[in-house]
Amino acid sequence: MRVLSSVAAFGMILKNSQYRGDVTLPWVLDTATGSRGQDRGRYRAEFISLAQRAMSLGGSLGGSLGGSLGGSLGGSLGTPLGR
Tens of pLDDT along 22-68? Predict the structure, then answer.
């Protein structure tokens, strides 16, 4: 269930959802990585790879995800929006 929470949080971050709360990309990555377990279809591993790419992209864009990943989120990816 933890990996599902991290997938949902990742979507909220990409959409800049008002419901995302204090969720950050580092939290998403830590939660997904910590809940790997058995991964028959390799979906979890693929999601973790996607989250890692988003983190590296965010760092190269000065802290925002930029246009191709759902618009600028502003601020640091490690810091909740509006703070």
Answer: 999 999 999 999 986 788 899 999 999 999 999 999 744 334 453 34
Gap between the Cα atoms of 56 and 26, Å rounded = 11
* Rounded CA separation 52/25 (Å): 9
* 79 vs 73: CA distance, rounded Å: 11
Residue 46 CB partners (closer than 8 Å, separation 6+)? none
Domain definitions of the chain by residue range: 2-69
Entry pTM: 0.67
Q: How far apart are CA 68 and CA 34, in angstroms?
A: 28
